[in-house]
Write a structure and sequence with these properties.
single chain; alpha/beta; Rossmann fold
Length: 189
């Protein structure tokens, strides 16, 4: 077992435990506040918009921060039924059910229509299939944000092909990912 697989399993297990407590969920989500704030700025997400969060995890911190920082409505997707149950309970405990909906879904196979922006988690995969499905469903110039793994985690996480040119990027200071990349859907046409 490699360090990266141990790290991923530990993180997933800790996140499921943290999702059972509002205090632990808030502590787990805290370091991502500035990450998500930069992504909100990069995608120009505003109040009243509908944002798709792909790969939300048991503590859906991206959805939580988007809802709190912008008052946007968020649809958070994850393909793991246990994670979805944990995320729903976490959102209920944080009293955010009026702004965040958590659904079971695989974005590489099906993506809901009618969203103004999408943010795809580092762990979500397969990235290129997700990208293509988002592109099929979204409107003209819809911002799509993908987190790019840092060099030391490049072999652990799936990423979009380098031949797919992003429109903008913002640096992130996380160990596992160092950039959030913006793709405008119409630009890839």
């Amino acid at each position: 077992m490699t360090f990266h697989s141990i790290f991923a399993r530990f993180t997933a297990a800790f996140e499921k435990i943290a999702s059972r407590s509002t205090v632990l969920s808030e502590m787990y989500a805290f370091p991502y506040r500035e990450v998500v704030a930069r992504e909100i700025s990069l995608a120009n997400i505003r109040s009243g918009e509908r944002v798709l969060n792909v790969g939300c995890g048991a503590v859906p911190f991206t959805a939580i921060h988007i809802a709190r920082l912008t008052q946007a409505r968020v649809l958070a997707l994850d393909r793991d039924p246990d994670v979805v149950r944990s995320a729903r309970a976490c959102i209920r405990r944080m009293n955010l059910e009026d702004r965040i909906e958590v659904e079971l879904g695989d974005a590489s196979e099906n993506v809901p229509e009618d969203f103004d922006a999408a943010i795809v988690a580092l762990q979500a995969e397969p990235k290129y299939e997700i990208f293509k499905k988002l592109q099929e469903r979204c409107g003209s110039r819809t911002p799509l944000i993908f987190r790019a793994p840092s060099p030391s985690f490049k072999d652990r996480y799936d990423s979009l092909p380098d031949t797919l040119l992003h429109d903008a990027a913002i640096r992130q200071s996380m160990a596992t990912f160092d950039r959030s990349l913006l793709y405008q859907a119409a630009a890839q046409g």
